[in-house]
Amino acid sequence: GATTFTFTPDPLQNFNREFTDYFVTGRKEDIGAFDTPKNPGQAIGWVTKVGPDFVELEVSDPATVLHNGDGLCYYDLHKELVGMAINVAEPVSARSVGQWRVYPKDPMDGFKDLRKGTEVNRNRDMDWVRTLEKKSSDRRIGLWAHLSETPAGFSLMLTDEDGNVGCADVEQPHQRATDAAKAEASLREQLGRFGATIFAVHDIALQLSEPWFVPASVLNALRRDALADLEDCRARNFARLQRAVPVEPPVPYPDDTLSFLGNVFNQKAHDFYVRHGVKVIDAAYEAHEEEGEVSLMITKHCVRFSMSLCPKQAKGVTGVQGTIKAEPLMLINGK
Asked: Dihedral (C-alpha) 102, 104, 110, 112: value to the nearest 10 degrees?
């Protein structure tokens, strides 16, 4: 079959605090995002006026459209992210381009440090949310329809792109149409209705001595019967893929030992590594077999480096070298 897509992904619309290649091309100056744990969204413009129950904005891109239900946010003077849910969004005037007036859901006195010139982000786009609620793709199997006349009525043959064939016949008098062009158009329209099925018609061939008048109910029943026969044919001809044969002997694991970091917590995982040549296998940390302190996380991302507290950064810097030491960092809950 063939798939058609009605949705274009946009990673910027998802919850994110920017992106990083995580040292794929070498160490970067900083890959941390310490401004906020929340979703700051994307910058869309700035405040031009703060009213008693509304805020006027000028968007940086005139094509940007604000919607009822959008979520906006901004940073206050203490660099705290403040959210603003929008009840109503409307253009400032009929002639204005890129200027919007929004009415927040909450009282205006709750928006700390909101003033003219404040940069505003959007972290919820209702148009995008509605797009996600719709169907994003459609997969159909192509087929060709062939309608021919028989002495007693008509015969319909459907052939799909895999070579499967479904047929159906109906007894129906050959009734001459008063309008040949309209009758042919009606035949093609009724025979091409595969909307709720997994099929899409590529072509409809009419092998008739003339475009006969055939009631829509008769054509619909003929199409359904031929389609049912085609689906039965596809089911009979379906060949299930054979299960892959495991590689023998099993591919050896790169190491012959695994620490608790291997996260081996059940017998099946243990047997898997044994089968691949691992001789010493420690239990996962959750098994509570590790004694003393163990590493919580091992990462290339250095918190000290991001905060300019790494002793390596101070090497060769006059007045700084030797003053920065690798003292333990404390993670305090609630701070």
From this structure: -30
Counting runs of H as helices and runs of E as strands, what totals does the chain give?
A: 5, 15
Residues 181-240 have pLDDT tens digits of 999 999 999 999 998 899 999 999 999 999 999 999 999 999 999 999 999 999 999 998
Q: Report the C-alpha gap between 49 and 279 in whole angstroms.
A: 70
Dihedral (CA of 35, 39, 42, 43) sign: negative
Q: How many CA atoms lie within 13 A of 20 on its CB side?
A: 13
d(CA 213, CA 203): 20
DSSP run (H or E) holding 83: strand 81-91
Domains and CATH numbers, the chain: 11-133 (2.40.10.170), 137-237 (3.30.390), 240-292 (no CATH), 299-335 (no CATH)
Instruction: Find the DSSP H helices in the chain.
Output: 126-133, 180-191, 216-237, 267-275, 303-306
**CA-to-CA separations, 103 to 53, 66, 83, 111, in angstroms, rounded:** 6, 11, 13, 12
Q: If you compute the radius of gyration of the chain from its CA atoms, what whole number of angstroms results? A: 34
Which residues are bridge partners to 257 per DSSP? 280
Spatial contact of 85 and 106, defined as CB atoms under 8 Å apart: yes
Residue 90 to residue 68: CA distance in whole angstroms: 8
Closest residue by Cα to residue 53 from 93, 94, 87: 87
Question: Phi-psi category of 246—alpha, beta or left, where left has phi over 0 and alpha has psi -120 to 50?
Answer: beta
Residue 39 tokens, joined: 């979703």
- Which two structure tokens, joined as six digits, stand for 233? 């044919």
Is residue 251 classed exposed, middle or buried when 0-12, 13-18 and 19+ CB atoms within 10 A define those classes?
exposed
* pTM as predicted: 0.66
pLDDT tens, position by position, 200-212 = 999 999 999 999 9
- Structure-token pair, residue 101: 């007036």
